[in-house]
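Lecture notes, continued. The same structure-token format from the folding unit now serves as the input rather than the output. Read the line below as a description of shape only.
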């Protein structure tokens, strides 16, 4: 399953909530991020912020995500796919 088809499993409200969480943690405006922009390369995120994103999404979406999935959670599309599968 591709990241895009997995992300299709989330509705617009869920994707919006995830985007809001990511923007808050990365301290960026929603207009500054695209579904494909990379957290580390494009938005200067470090590994601690990645863990913060994972924990916040687990709380907000009431899912459990294995830390091994962090390697896939490098963009909004990656996060959407991981959450859709969780």
């Amino acid at each position: 399953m591709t990241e895009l088809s997995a992300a299709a499993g989330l509705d617009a409200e869920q994707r919006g909530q995830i985007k809001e969480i990511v923007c808050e943690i990365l301290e960026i405006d929603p207009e500054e991020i695209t579904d494909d922009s990379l957290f580390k390369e494009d938005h200067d995120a470090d590994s601690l912020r990645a863990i913060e994103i994972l924990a916040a999404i687990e709380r907000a979406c009431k899912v459990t995500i294995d830390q091994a999935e962090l390697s896939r959670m490098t963009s909004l599309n990656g996060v959407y796919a991981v959450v859709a599968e969780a």
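Point for the exam: The helical segments are 3-7, 12-26, 39-43, 47-61, 76-85.
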